[in-house]
Every structure is written in C-alpha cells, then in structure tokens.
Amino acid sequence: MSLVAAPMAAVVDLATSAQLQQATMEVEEEAKAEQQQESYSSILLMKGVRHLSDSGITRLPDRYVLPAPDRPDAGAGHDGLATTTTSVVKVKLPVVDLARLRDPSQRAAVLQTLDAACRGYGFFQVVNHGVDGDVIAGMLDVARRFFELPLPERARYMSPDVRAAVRYGTSFNQAKDAVLCWRDFLKLACHPLRDVVASWPREPTDLRDVASRYAAASHGLFMELMEAALQALLGMAAAAGVLGELAAASSHMMTVNCYPACPQPELTLGMPAHSDYGLFTLVLQDHVEGLQVMHAGRWLTVDPIPGAFVVNVGDHLEILSNGAYKSVLHRVRVNSTRPRMSVASFHSLPAERVVGPAPELVDEAAGKPRRYMDTDFATFLAYLASADGKDKTFLQSRMLLHDHDHDHDHCAAASILRPSN
C-alpha cells in the first residue's frame, strides 16, 4: 500500500499547488483591476466636476455623496437642531441702496438699514452700486469661458499652496476632503493688483483685462461699504483709523466658482456650511439660485436681485465688532438641470495684521466684556492644520464668551465645515 500511496499523494500535492497558484493569480489580477479602477476613478475626480458633468454621468461618484444627516434635505443637524427643510424656503435679504447712501439727506436711514442687516442676518444685497453693467456681464462671461477651456489649460494652475497667487482646483482640497464638493474653482490674488495680474491665466485672452477691471470695481465697492459699516458701528471719528489702514494696505482674494449640473443634487452640496474669513465678502452670481443662509436655525435660499451684489459679514468683522455684527454660516446647493456661476471677492486687512475687538466696543465696567481673542492669518492656518475644525468653526475657536443662539447655529454644521482655502 505504501508503494502506491506515495505517488498518489504527490499527484494530489501537485494538483493542490496548481490550484493555489491559479487562485493566487486570480486574486492578484482582481487586486490589479481594482487598483486600476481606483486609479481611473481618482483621475476622473482630479479632473473635477465640470469634466464629470460633461462626461454624461447619471450617478454621483461615491466620493461626492454626503452622509445622510448632512445632505441638503436632511431634517435636522447633528445636535438635533432643525437646520434644513425638505422644501426650499426663499428669503429676500435686506437691501442697501447705495444711491440713497450717497445722498446726505438719506444717508442716516440707509446706515440704519445696513447696521440692522449686519446684526440680524449677516447678509444683505446692494443695489444702485454704480458698477458698470458691462464690467459685471464681462466677468461672468469670461468666468464661463475659462471653465470651458480644455482641462490641460486649466490644470496648469493647480496648486496645493493656499497662498498661491493663482490656484485652480475642485472641491476645497480634493487630496484631503473626506467628501468632495460639487464645485470647481479658480482663485486669484488681487492685491496689489498691478503686481499679481501677470500671474493670472493667459486664457481666455481677455481674462486678465476683464477680471482686473472687475477686481478694481469690487475693491472700490468694499471700501465704500466698510466706511458705512464702521460709521454705523463706531462713528466716523473712531472708524478713521481702520479706514486709513485699509486705504494703505489690504488683502483681496477673488474666487470664481463653477457649479455644473449634478446628476443627484439631493446627495451633495456645491459648498458645505462655512463662514468667511475676512471683513466683507462681495458675491456676484448669475440668475441661477443656490446660495443658502443659516438664519434662526433654518437654511434659507437667497432670492437674487438681478444686477445686485450679495454681501456678507466675515469672521474679522464679527471679531472687530465684538459680536455685534454676525458672520453666519452659508452653503451652496446644486441642481440637476442648470449650471451656476458665481464670483466671490474676499476683502480684509493685510494677512499679517492682528484683528481684535475695537476698543470702543469693550468696557468691562459697563457690562461690555471682550468676547473674542485676537487673530491673524497665521492663527487661521494653524486652525486649518489642527483637529479643531472637526468640532467647531474658526470663529468659535476665537470666542471668549459665547452667544448661545449664534454659537448653536455654528455647532449645527461644524462636522461638515471645511474652510474655503
């Protein structure tokens, strides 16, 4: 028996070895195929949402799908606060009429409207601003044409450096974001304008001229609005110091946003809930709605006024006002049929400038305690690199005393917050 069994065992061993080898090869081939698919998917994601939309996809890639509680139509925030509704609730923001502001006989009344808007909503719309219609239309047109350029032309401006004078990308930071946003963007440093324009994209050929004229107009409008806001908040005498600083040096970043039609808009956002780092943000948008503002625990969709600018208070202005003016959470919804374009201009003091509450607004003896720590851009960058962003907004990280209602709104979306780099 032993003389027969040995060869049979050898045959069995050889068969088993062959099977194992075949199985191993199959596993390796499957792994290789999965890696190739992942690599292909990564390439598609790196190309951005304009590419995905143009490719005709009918299902949202998994990297763009938000967890159920964070989706646009979710019924409540993470702490139980009702932050969204299943039906779109529109809001007509307070309107600041600059033609009336420039009229000495009407200025006081408009200052009251501006002051109330900054305290109550943190947002308002500006009409009769005097920015030429051709400048506005030209900016939106050249923005559309930039995102229609071949990907290699756009991709040459990709950069992981948040300080880069020009930066093209998708989402906020596609290399780090756990869930990607349905947005492509082009960011342009705008100060000092004459020094940075040469670094802006060469295509479309009129982009530098058109965008620089728009940037100059935006800065002029910002200065006029800051003068009015500081006059309402502090009085002209106290406001002169900050206005003088801004006239001498400032920071200005412009972000051109492209939100293509999305196959499953109910599963994602163009931008998640966030507040802006700066004094004022001026937003130019086309006729497609999508901007939403957090107010009294609800997401309200801004009903845009044709030709108007949407303006919102930034974190710096809330800190400077010692909490009187509100930097509120806002986000962008997308839709399945119409692309949307917007141009956001972020204005503030120079990056190295330390910002704190205005001394005129702090009086411990009078029951007006200091509510915020000082901050600067280095502090903001440290916050981005820390774990704090998972639990609270940047503004919350600078608070000494908390406004319960305002803080509650910020907490409701903190876990999906991603600062706009």
Automatic annotation (TrEMBL):
- Chief place of localization: cytoplasm
Alphabetized, the UniProt keywords read: Cytoplasm, Dioxygenase, Iron, Metal-binding, Nucleus, Oxidoreductase
GO molecular function per UniProt: dioxygenase activity; metal ion binding
Per the entry, which co-factors are needed? L-ascorbate
Q: Name one Pfam family in it.
A: 2OG-FeII_Oxy
Among its keywords, does the record have Oxidoreductase?
yes
User: Can you tell which superkingdom this protein's organism belongs to?
Assistant: Eukaryota
**SUPFAM superfamilies, per the entry:** Clavaminate synthase-like (SSF51197)
Q: Where is the Fe2OG dioxygenase domain?
A: 250-349
Acetylation as a keyword of this entry, yes or no, is: no
Q: Where in the cell is it found?
A: Cytoplasm; Nucleus
Describe the task this protein carries out.
Involved in the regulation of shoot development and salicylic acid (SA) homeostasis.
Give the family from UniProt. Belongs to the iron/ascorbate-dependent oxidoreductase family.
Protein name per Swiss-Prot or TrEMBL? Fe2OG dioxygenase domain-containing protein
Source species, please?
A: Panicum virgatum (Blackwell switchgrass)
